[in-house]
Each structure stands twice: as structure tokens, then as C-alpha cells.
Amino acid sequence: MQIGFIGLGVMGQPMALNLADAGADLLVWNRTPARCEPLREAGAEVAESAKEVFHRTRVIMLMMANSASTDAVLGRGTPDFVANVAGRIIVSTGTNSAEYSRMLDSDICEAGGSYVEAPVSGSRKPAEAGRLVGMLAGDDKAVAEVLPLLAPICHETITCGPVPNALSMKLAVNLFLITLVTGLAEAVHFAESHRLDLDKLVAILNAGQMASEISRVKLAKLVSQDFEVQASISDVLKNNRLIAEAARLSNLSSPLLDICHELYAETEALGHGRNDMIAVVRALEQRTGQLS
Fold first, then answer.
1. How is residue 66 annotated by DSSP?
2. What is the pLDDT of residue 1?
3. Distance CA 22, CA 20 (A)
4. pLDDT 10s digits, 9-44
5. CA pseudo-torsion sign 157, 160, 163, 168
6. Which pTM was predicted?
7. Which element (helix H / strand E) includes 156?
8. Nearest in space to 92 (alpha carbons), one of 177, 1, 7
9. pLDDT band at 50; cut points 50, 70, 90
10. Where does the chain have alpha helices with state H?
11. At a CB cut-off of 8 Å and minimum separation 6, what does 284 contact?
12. Cis peptide before 164 (omega within 30 of 0)
């Protein structure tokens, strides 16, 4: 069975490459054609348009930046939508709001298709290594069909029940990630401001019980000031907004998230939107400078 894959950005391209390397018969498309070339070299077929992907494949994976780009590629709100999704399984691996996903599920089902939420936890490096964690929600039959297809992408997959449980779960995971990395950035900023040996800070944190795969990676990037993108400031800010909106809808307090929202917005305003999320340290530095 040929699988469609649309959206070959920072996350989508390595995910699709892992599928191709595992021998999947892939038909891919991306708005920027150059992003398709590594897939072509890996043996995937490159479509001329998104419409071609929908018309030629039955299972289509999407890794889109946001809800607007997801709607655009699906043709949602246009006569093309029914033709694109009827009789097909649409698998959305990106992060959108739970409410958007609930409405999309309804629209796809009404048009005669099936919808599976499959947001993934992890950034570019885990995506390249096939070490993402997938969260799935949707119709049991569709989820069962999609699960084995994700094996080259995810080292673990967790089924979460009906839509939008997977996306709500992803937002909870991202809340922890955002506050964790922001705290790590503040710790490095504190240590550097006190002229402490950062190599020793790294050794202590990596040896302690707080260490994790993500803390080790982000700590190394912070100390070396390596801002090459794994998860961008702009993308983290988008996720922060989604979590905050979900919290407000549920009348939940989210004080840690709210201060992170301010910091990532400030970082983006400083021109670091395309840098890795560790660039949030630049907002901390700016605030410190304003206290001088």
C-alpha cells in the first residue's frame, strides 16, 4: 500500500525519511519543492500537488505547521474537501487545538473519511532517530490500521481514546517540556551571571536525578550557545498559546506557563523566532540587563 505524506518541514522530513528507509512505498508533497529532494533520493515518489497525494493514496499523514495550513492542504471549506478525504484515513501528526481537531474529525467523518489524531512528542533529533512518542486518538479501526505504520517514526505509541484526547495529552506533555527547558535556561543564566564553571554545572546536572535526554541535549546547547533549531521559538510559542487557551477554556490556573508565554513572546520579538527554544535565554538576559 502506498502511503501519502504531506508536510516536509523540520519534523516532517525526517519522519518521512524514516518511513522511506524502512521500505514504505511513499508518495510525498511539500509546498517548498526542495524539501522533497531527500525523499526522492531515498526512493519516495514526489507528487505534483497535494491533490495528487489524496487521489492516489488511502492513508495520508500530515505534518503541518498549524490549523490554517492543515485546512489549506485538505481543501477544507472548498468543493475539493470531500474528494480529498472520502474513503481515506487522514492522520494528523502536528499540534493543533483540541477544539479544532474535534471539528475536523466531525467534518472528515461527515465527508466519508476517517480521522486519526497522532501528535508526536519530540523534536528534530528524536525525529531523525525514529525515537518520537506518538499519541493516537480516533476510531478504533482506523487507529489500529495506522499504528503499525508509525513504527519507523515512533519508538513508542500510546492510544488515548476518542478525539481530541491525543491532542489534549500532547498539550499536557508540552506544558512540562516548555517549563522544563525554560527553567534550565534560567539556571544556566544564573550560573553564568555568577561566573560559575559551566562545565561543572553540566557535570552536576547530568549526574543528578533531574537529568533526562532532553535536559542533556538542551543543556549542551545552552552552554555552547548552539541555537540551531530542533524546536523553534515560534513553534514553542504557538504551542504555549494553545495550552493557555485550553487552560482558560477549562478555568485552569497555569502560572508557570503564563510566564513562559511572556518570555517566548519576548524572545520572538528579539528576532529569534527561527532559533531553537533554548534562545529563550536571550529574553532572560534582556530582563537582567533592564535591572542594571
1. S
2. 84
3. 5
4. 999 999 999 999 999 999 999 999 999 999 999 999
5. negative
6. 0.91
7. strand 154-159
8. 7
9. very high
10. 12-21, 37-41, 50-56, 67-74, 80-85, 98-110, 124-129, 140-146, 165-193, 198-207, 213-224, 233-249, 255-267, 281-291
11. 185, 186, 189, 263
12. yes
219-242 pLDDT, tens digit each = 999 999 999 999 999 999 999 999
Query: Measured between alpha carbons, how far is residue 45 from residues 49, 82, 176, 201 in Å?
Result: 12, 24, 38, 48
Question: 51-63, pLDDT tens digit by residue?
Answer: 999 999 999 999 9
- Predicted confidence band of residue 123 (pLDDT cuts 50, 70, 90): confident
Rounded CA separation 254/243 (Å): 9
Query: DSSP code of 268?
Result: I
Nearest to 52 by CA among 70, 77, 32, 27: 27
CA atoms within 13 A on the CB side of 76: 20
Nearest C-alpha neighbor of 119 from the set 96, 145, 149, 86? 96
> DSSP labels for 10-43?
TTHHHHHHHHHHTT-EEEEE-SSGGGGHHHHHTT
CB 40 within 8 A of CB 46: yes
Place of cell 527561527: 274
Q: Identify which has the larger pLDDT, 124 or 74.
A: 74
Cell 523553534 belongs to residue: 232
Between the alpha carbon of residue 108 and those of residues 71, 86, 101, 160, 216, the distances in Å are 11, 8, 10, 19, 41
The answer to whether the beta carbons of residues 40 and 48 sit under 8 Å apart is no
CA–chain centroid gap for 148, Å, is 20
* Length of the chain, in residues: 292
- 3-state secondary structure at position 155: strand
